[in-house]
Amino acid sequence: MKMERRMKALSLASMLGMFLILVMGALVTKTESGRGCGDDWPLCNGKFVPAYTIESFIEYSHRFVVGVVGIILLATTILVFLYSKRKDAKWYVGGAMFFTLLQAVLGALAVLWPQSSAVLALHFGFSLMSFAFTLLLYLVFTKYGEAMHRGDGTRLSRGVRMSVWFVLIYSYVVVYLGAFVRHTESVGGCIGWPLCNGQVIPEFTGSTGIVFAHRVAAAVLGLVILALFLFVRSQAQPDSSVYQAAKLSLIFVTLQIASGAFVTLSIGYEIYLLASLLHAVLISCLFGILCYFGITSLHTEEHNVQAYAAPRLP
User: Fold this and answer.
1) For this UniProt entry, which segments traverse the membrane (predicted)?
2) How many separate domains does the chain show?
């Protein structure tokens, strides 16, 4: 019991640390501090303690936090593999360690050698995967862990269960497009919201095409999550894990779309940086919830639904 409390505490620290890394990574990109330490890694401009500039402070702080969280995650990994009887916990901590190392290596390569925007956009995606795995690991040691292991008796049709995983995978595509917008510095490609440069369908060229593609993808994500929620609502009880996950997914995708509008409307104002960080925080929460949604859906029982059955409306 004592060891389980330690694993829970370390998994919580790992999850919070990964969340902080996501936010700090977004801050590095938005403040253009990625070159704050020059071409040196792991040193910063050839020094262990670099000269104080805003860019070097932001970049080096990000590196420091990654290192500390990596040590915490390593300790968590050792304890989980030695003392946990849950196979899924070992998968989660293993996945977290793999993507943490991957994003650290990609970050180092981005410093040492110039990388394309398409490659740099993967960095946020890998960090997001690390956070998702640490979130699932922490939930194993909470009251939600049982639903992730054996389910709670909820019955979902095969189509709904497959749809959950489609939405999860598609959400990652939307995340990548958002990261690509940031790394190509295309955020100003669409001025105004919901119209893009005063047009319903703008020209698909340059930064305008990149931003508009992300907007359309985000809108589709919102619609499919709404549809998924309605189908889950027609088959699951309100107190079930999958219903709660579907409801939270709908809430957070709505907030995410609203924060995207906030980012666009704040361009040119001092609040723009805050709006951008809020956008990164909300997509992290949404993706984490969708991952939990996907795992719990795997442990639901088969529910046969007539082809003509429609979800009941709110």
Assistant:
1) 64-84, 91-113, 119-141, 162-181, 212-232, 244-265, 271-295
2) 2
Residue type, 250: L
Residue 142 contacts residue 289 (beta carbons within 8 Å): no
- Same-domain pairing of 287 and 152: yes
Q: Which two tokens stand for residue 88?
A: 């899924």
Q: Which residue has the tokens 């996950």?
A: 245
- Shared-domain flag, residues 21 and 110: yes
Q: Are residues 48 and 71 in the same domain?
A: yes
CA angle 218, 261, 29 (to 5 degrees): 80
**121 lies in the same domain as 204:** no
pLDDT tens digits along 180-193: 888 788 888 888 88
Helices and strands in the chain, H and E counts: 9, 2
**80 and 154 together in one domain:** no
Q: Which of 4, 32, 55, 59 is catalytic?
A: 59
CB atoms under 10 Å from CB of 46, counted, come to 10
Average pLDDT, the chain: 85
The range of the structural domain enclosing residue 56 comes to 1-142
Q: Is there a catalytic annotation at residue 59?
A: yes
Domain boundary among 142, 159, 178: 142
**Closest CA relative to residue 134, chosen from 247, 299, 21, 5:** 21
Q: Give me Rg for the CA atoms of the chain.
A: 21
Q: Hey, what are 221's tokens? A: 């994500």
